[in-house]
Amino acid sequence: MLNRSVNESIQISSLTWNLGNQMASVAAVSDAIEQLIPDPNNLPVVIAIATQEEMAKEGKRLHEQMLEALNKNLPEGEKYKIVLFEKHKTLAGANNMLKGGNIGQFAKAMLTDRNQVSNALLVKEPYDIQDADAKIYYEPGKEKGGNKSIIRIKGALTKNSQKIMDISIAGAHLDSNKDAKRREHINGYLSGEDLRDKNFDSIEDIFTQAQVFRVFMGDLNERDYLMRDGTTCDQTHQTNLSGFGFDVTRTPQQTLEGNPIHGTYGVRILDGQQIKGDPDPKQRAHVAREGHLDRVAFSSGLEASDMHYGATLRGAHCEYSEKKTYYHGADHFPVARGFSVKPATEETKLLTACHYIQNRIPNVDNDLKRLEALKRAVTEKDLDSFQTIIQSMQYYDDTLSTYQYIEQKFGIVLYEDVSAYFSSTMEENQLLLGLERGIEQLSGVQEAMMTYHQKLEAIKYLDKPSAKEQEEVVKIANIVSSYQASMNDIRLMESKLEDTEQRNKKIGVARRLFDLLDEHVIKTFKRGGNINNGCIVIKQFTQGVFDQGVDSSIKALFSKKAKTSCSLYKEHISKTKLITSEKNKNKRIESASSHEPPSKRLKLKN
Length: 606
Prior knowledge:
By secondary structure, this protein is of the alpha+beta class. The protein has 19 helices and 19 strands. Helix 11 runs parallel beside helix 14 and helix 13 packs antiparallel against helix 14. This is Endonuclease/Exonuclease/phosphatase family protein.
């Protein structure tokens, strides 16, 4: 039962640090405490410490040294204690020791259990955490033990044996090379925690998830992406963590001697200036060296505010090289985040449930603004701006030409010479019409999601919501849950096709599935019902891509057998006819006008 009288806010502080196959020094421990607790007169109730690639013997691990230092001046009855500590051996980083000539450390990593990934949960007396439980989610395919993992510790925070709130802390070390592996790994965690495919039955059912304060932190290995226009882009808004309510898009604020720096890894400083935007030699060409690989994110329906997030780094602890900056000998920077959390009560149950779903409602504003900017460029005959926008959407090493990318991304069939659509003599501009169709569809999704958000906003403050209003909350919760689960399936399909010969085809396949999902969202919004049928089709299709390949899956999805249960069948047939017709028309036009001057060709209808 919840404590009806709880009015205090609970401070929870989390620290993650990839220590680069070494033990934290006394100076590093002191520094970590300062990052975790900026104000020594304001101590957190709960402390979570996640480490990766920590090479230390028992008794000298980071959480043990921090515990000893924290308790040194605290009186009895107010000290910290370890609630639970979970770890496993890892060989991550061992090859770097061998390459660096550190044979002794390499031998320790191979022959002992000292090199570990770990997660520790500490609580300050007189508080306690009861029914504490730990679980390790290893990377897919290595369920019996691997180098990368998600270690989750959960339990009920209590005071004087009275429950205050549920807490779940996950410390992760994810794959450094492939988005598909990271996404599958996180899917395993989401499924194991009953978050991925949840179908809610009641407000109470939603509240059970919403009243938990969940933290997901660690070396997530999400780097910046390099785009064709020369900019960099953080893609964490597309991760499955973001889709399931974790605020992973928030980046830690790092400073070095008071100056802001970008990233927690791969940071290169030359003559006092940070160098950014070079490709990572171990990754594909569109992945940058640097980035905010280390993050602390949370998901909950509880009222929570940041007390601090990031790290204040000191030059005295830095060692600079051409490749990266080391801090206390580690090639990652520590990241700490402090929360002030207000636990739920019986009186705030509806508020907490609604807030939890609101945090998961997708925001398509940026995608819509980009489409509108493209339309504006076509309307104003501004080819340069149009190409710049397209290049900001394409990875640095994308091999698709502009017209190919537009066809696959938006389903708009164009001439190879895109400049034709920026001529004042162009009639029936298919590029403009296609963008308008895209804007109309995305606006429909935005309207639906904004309306759902507003409905929850209006209901969540009611003292006594009616049965109909409660049903509306549950319905919206399941629409949002199904939508995000389907988005996750499509993104996983995309990432799995990334390194195959189907790499370019994945854009068009994903677009069709996104169209299907958007169609069901809009229909649901206008006519009622749910989007489960569309989501089931998407799940079947994406699984078919993994099992049978893209072409076979498309054929199966759009077969006569599928058309009775899949509204995308009609769309597929109509669009296929349109595309074939347009391409044949283009060929006829090109053939007929091959000997005419370009200025005359532009007058022909598209």
